Amino acid sequence: MKQENAMTVDARSLGKVAVLMGGRSAEREVSLMSGNGVLAALKSKGVDAHAFDPAEREMGELKREGFQRCFIALHGRFGEDGTVQGALELLGIPYTGPGVMASSVAMDKLMTKRIWIAEGLATPAWRQVRSAEETLAAFKALGSPMIVKPVREGSTIGLTKVTSEAQCAAAYELAARLDPQVMCEQFIAGDEVTCPVLGTGAQARALPVIRIVAPEGNYDYQNKYFTDDTKYLVPCGLPEGEEAAIQALVLKAYLTLDCRGWSRADVMIDAKTRKPWLLEINTSPGMTGHSLVPMSAKAAGLSYEDLCVRLLATASLDHAA
Length: 321
Known about the structure:
Elements: H1 2-5, E1 16-20, H2 28-44, E2 48-52, H3 61-64, E3 69-72, H4 83-91, H5 100-107, H6 109-118, E4 126-129, H7 132-142, E5 146-150, E6 160-162, H8 168-178, E7 182-186, E8 190-198, E9 205-206, E10 210-213, H9 221-225, E11 231-233, H10 242-256, E12 262-270, E13 276-282, H11 292-299, H12 304-313
Parallel strand pairs: 1-2, 1-3
Antiparallel strand pairs: 4-7, 5-6, 5-7, 8-9, 8-10, 8-12, 10-11, 12-13
Helix pairs in contact: 2-12, 7-8
């Protein structure tokens, strides 16, 4: 990372920048925190940056007001799923993070798993379910504990860890309220880690792995963003060779989905076998005070402000205007 950390960017060359934040997803509150953090960081570096909430303004205003780049700090639906990326492609305004297809696929946990399996990458067993009865059948097949979650949500919203047949119906109903597509996933007991990737193609590099130690192993929405009870270990303290193996796995998962710019993959390490299992990949990761990409970048010698400028400098389009 040393050579990459030395990269300097002329703030004036980045033009007028919109930081897209808020939006209409269930993660609006977190997105506003991420966006305001990014906005302050970019301004501190001399970037002509402005807040822009797609839930309150029409996307066409970006073109009419002369914005030349967008930093996407939106999370979840209508921001991380290819929809905003597609709008920016039509407007011809370069944006941060993966393109339309990669964003859409990564937001869909089922589609992501199908691609990773086809590429020989390890991900926990799963079942797609359409009813409480199918959820119960999945529990009998996958075993206890089992994770039930919406296919196209993030931040553990709508997720339930099921340990008994009696919980299946409520778990399904909770997930189905957020997304008509619901999935059940085999639970992997062990260390929970996450690993960001920066860059595109042959220049993409995995950052240091972070080990997450949540209260009673419950890394839920509250413990992610609003408490200081969760511990984040970086250096991760994993056995020799494990961190490098996880970084290699995450980098391959990132490139397999054709991600660019940046993303962050979540991984579980089986406590018995020490085998890492890919859970999902986030193409517009959080940038709040509790967020993990800035934490990992700092361990690699990259400050929050420099990280924001570097990501903005990589803004691009799937197709040249």
